[in-house]
Amino acid sequence: MTTRIGVTGATGRMGREVLAAAAEREDCDVVFAVNREPAGDATVEGVEIEPAAEFDSLVADREPTVVVDFTGPESAVDYVETCAGAGVAFVTGTTGFDDEFEALEAASEDIAVLHAPNFARGVQALVNVVGDAVQDLPGYDVELVETHHNGKRDAPSGTANRLLKEIEANGDFTERTHGREGDAPRSEREIGVHALRAGDVTGEHEIVLAGNHEEVRLTHRAEDRGVFAAGAVDAAVWIAGQKAGWYDFADVISE
Ligand SMILES: NC(=O)C1=CN([C@@H]2O[C@H](COP(=O)(O)OP(=O)(O)OC[C@H]3O[C@@H](n4cnc5c(N)ncnc54)[C@H](OP(=O)(O)O)[C@@H]3O)[C@@H](O)[C@H]2O)C=CC1
Ligand SMILES: O=C(O)C1=N[C@H](C(=O)O)C[C@H](O)C1
Hints:
Layout: E1 3-7, H1 13-23, E2 28-35, E3 43-44, E4 47-51, H2 55-62, E5 66-69, H3 73-86, E6 89-92, H4 101-107, E7 112-115, H5 121-136, E8 141-148, H6 158-170, E9 175-178, E10 190-197, E11 204-211, E12 214-221, H7 226-239, E13 245-247, H8 249-253
Parallel strand pairs: 1-2, 1-5, 2-4, 5-6, 6-7, 7-13, 8-10, 9-10
Antiparallel strand pairs: 3-4, 8-11, 11-12
Helix pairs in contact: 1-7, 2-3, 3-4, 5-6
Binding site for (S)-2,3,4,5-tetrahydrodipicolinate: 149, 158-159
Pathway: Amino-acid biosynthesis; L-lysine biosynthesis via DAP pathway; (S)-tetrahydrodipicolinate from L-aspartate: step 4/4
Subunit structure: Homotetramer.
């Protein structure tokens, strides 16, 4: 069966990649793509880019099975609420959520919603191993360093926040220290968190565990945004058959 996909943020860094990834597959069709203020005759991968102001009517008229969203927290909430009203599943890789996250969770009572801060399969593997490493090395200092391109808005990254949750769930930590400056010795049970923004780095996450005169470094490096887009399109095809509820990327790759 063909999955009918609507794409938001379609001229953004990730939106373009999603359109390219979808174009490579025979089991999905892009039925519309929107951006906030598209140039008059804009197309990406042969798909016409339409104004985001028309999102609601496009959902009603083109009947997507699922919307794939890489935009910002506020727009993601607007889009998921429309999808919830129309019975259309929603896959989002948007990060930087604060209170807006509650609206995503609420929508999952009516439709299938999948949020993943990182659609790279290697990051899922990293999430799986980091908890074991922290458990196996009690008392070791833990620091997390993430590096992204200079256009990224949110810090720390959504992936870093996900990894931090995993570290905290598996060790005895009391605080996160964001950066370090001046007379600022490390306390025993803190996790240092460092966000670098430079050039066109696609996305790197490194966890350093150090103690006992030894050091372990767990690193994921995305070399191409296509990795995230391919994962998001896999998720879109997968979610088409799911009932209302909250899902993450682990659900997709465990099948
Ligand atoms: N989960 C994952 O695997 C990944 C997640 N991301 C996340 O995806 C998101 C987008 O990243 P990226 O593509 O690099 O960002 P870009 O800035 O390149 O693109 C964002 C797109 O969203 C649109 N947009 C932003 N805010 C709004 C709004 N309020 N209303 C309507 N449209 C809006 C932008 O429109 P306009 O052109 O008008 O500004 C643009 O098209 C970020 O949160 C990022 O962290 C990124 C990579 C991988
Ligand atoms: O903004 C990006 O580029 C990325 N954002 C995601 C995040 O915040 O974790 C995932 C990836 O690292 C790229």
